[in-house]
Design goal:
Blueprint (H helix, E strand, L loop, with lengths): L1 H24 L3 H23 L1 H13 L2 H18 L4 H6 L1 H8 L1 H17 L9 H11 L5 H9 L4 H30 L7 H31 L4 H21 L4 H19 L3 H28 L11 H25 L8 H9 L5 H8 L7 H30 L2
Helix pairs in contact: 1-2, 1-14, 2-3, 2-14, 4-12, 4-13, 4-14, 4-17, 6-10, 7-8, 7-15, 8-10, 8-18, 9-18, 10-11, 10-13, 11-12, 11-13, 12-13, 12-14, 15-16, 15-18, 16-18, 17-18
Length: 412
């Protein structure tokens, strides 16, 4: 009953905030919901204990009682990645395979080390002592992009299809790479004697990434074959839900990447399955179902992000390095996109406008919050959490609200 009560409160708040945003604020849905959650969080932190102590206490306990890492990484992310992948055209993705692969792998690693090195040398100037491994840890968790909030804006702004595919494709694949990199660094931070030889790390990355992709492809083809044999939209939708939930359990049991499993399965069902295994009725219902799942879970996710302000104990302690971290992350994003573009033979080469959009449109989101919440070190956890929160909020609000305007200027 307690779990049902908690989710009921979140669903009601998400519905109310969505209505208020659509009726009055008219901001992109995810941004509007998150801003209202942040506003409520600020009000509760400032006046909650004096004006409405019972309500404030209950909401504090509700948010702090949620295992955000488990809820997002173990449940919501699988549905969101599958829902995103099922709408991606594989032919478009194939055309952009080189930049998508480069930005979701090499750029993530570049960004991790650029952020880590800059913060390590910058922190002493701010009288902050932080080990290099935790600087790298922050770099790995803040590097994956989350363009969910901005893709709708890009479409309305008339952004070229190739750029949309680059941003969407990168975000679908870089989550899995970043999670593996984060896991290696977290293990190193907690267990200094762990084997981190090039061979062992490479094997871990290959096992997680390749294993996840192969499992997802297998599940996608099996589900498509099953759907082809029944032509019933209700059972077909149920099969895709089983792929997401059961696929994650299998991936978790054999220690391969759940996120990449969901991406691969979604791509196969969304392309091979829709084209060859489904009637137009089934295809229509399946598309609408996963669009609804995507919108509902995004509303809850960004509500979560807004309310995560309640778990930051002291916003004053690390505000300066957190604000500087925003600039560091943007700089690392630029370098990690620009440097590979000089080496890798992209066709066509990245224009200045495309580079600008890839940098400014690379939003950070729930994955970064979930990863930082899994850091248990009592000394550095709060600092990493506050830095991550500053970057994510700036990214979603400032970059998310201005990317449409910037695209109109730089892509003329």
């Amino acid at each position: 009953m307690e779990l049902y009560y908690s989710f009921s409160v979140l669903i009601v708040l998400a519905a109310v905030f969505s209505y208020v945003n659509l009726r009055f604020l008219k901001l992109p849905s995810t941004i509007g919901i998150m801003l209202m959650a942040i506003l409520v969080s600020v009000i509760l932190r400032i006046t909650g204990n004096t004006l409405f102590p019972n309500t404030a206490s209950e909401l504090f306990n509700l948010i702090q009682g949620f295992d955000f890492t488990e809820v997002l990484m173990g449940a919501m992310l699988n549905f969101l990645l599958f829902a995103g992948a099922i709408h991606v055209n594989l032919a478009d993705l194939k055309e952009q395979r080189l930049p998508v692969f480069t930005f979701s792998t090499i750029s993530v690693i570049f960004s991790t080390f650029i952020i880590g090195i800059i913060l390590y040398f910058l922190a002493p100037l701010l009288h902050i002592d932080i080990p290099f491994i935790y600087c790298l840890l922050f770099g790995s968790l803040i590097s994956p992009t989350d363009p969910i909030a901005v893709l709708g804006i890009l479409k309305k702004a008339g952004v070229p299809k190739s750029l949309e595919v680059k941003i969407a494709g990168e975000s679908l694949f870089n989550d899995g790479v970043a999670v593996v990199l984060f896991a290696v660094l977290l293990q190193l931070a907690h267990t200094p004697n762990v084997d981190i030889s090039f061979a062992s790390v490479l094997w871990l990355l290959v096992r997680e990434a390749l294993g996840g992709m192969l499992l997802g492809i297998l599940l996608g083809f099996i589900a498509s074959k099953a759907i082809k044999g029944i032509d019933d939209y209700i059972v077909s939708v149920l099969i895709t839900v089983a792929v997401v939930m059961g696929g994650y359990l299998v991936a978790n049991a054999i220690h391969i990447s759940g996120p990449l499993t969901m991406v691969a399965a979604g791509l196969i069902i969304g392309n091979y399955g829709k084209r060859l295994a489904m009637s137009s009725v089934t295809k229509d219902y399946l598309t609408k179902f996963w669009e609804l799942i995507d919108e509902i879970l995004n509303a809850i996710l960004f509500l979560f992000i807004g309310f995560e302000l309640l778990v930051i104990e002291d916003l004053k302690s690390y505000w300066l390095i957190s604000a500087i971290a925003i600039l560091v992350v943007l700089f690392a994003r630029f370098v990690s996109i620009w440097m590979p573009s000089l080496i890798v033979p992209f066709k066509p080469r990245l224009s200045r406008g495309t580079l600008t959009m890839l940098v400014w449109g690379g939003l950070r989101g729930g994955v970064s919050i979930a990863l930082v919440m899994s850091v248990s070190d009592p000394v550095y956890r709060q600092m990493l959490l506050e830095m991550t929160y500053f970057v994510v909020v700036f990214s979603i609000v400032v970059q998310g609200l201005t990317v449409g305007r910037i695209s109109g200027k730089v892509l003329r």
